[in-house]
Amino acid sequence: MGRVGLERVKSGIKGLDELIGGGFPLGSTVLLSGGSGTGKTIFGLTYLYEGARRQNEPGLYITTEGNLKNLLWMMEVFGWDIKPLQESNLLKIYKLNLHTFEDVDRQIEEELKVIARLVKDMGCRRLVVDSTTALGVWITEKGRMRHLVYTFTDALKDLGCTTILIAETKGRKTDFSAFGIEEFISDVVISLYFTPPNRSIFVRKMRGTNHSKTVHPFTISDLGIEVKPKDEIMWEALK
Question: Is pTM, for the whole model, over 0.90?
Answer without folding.
Answer: yes
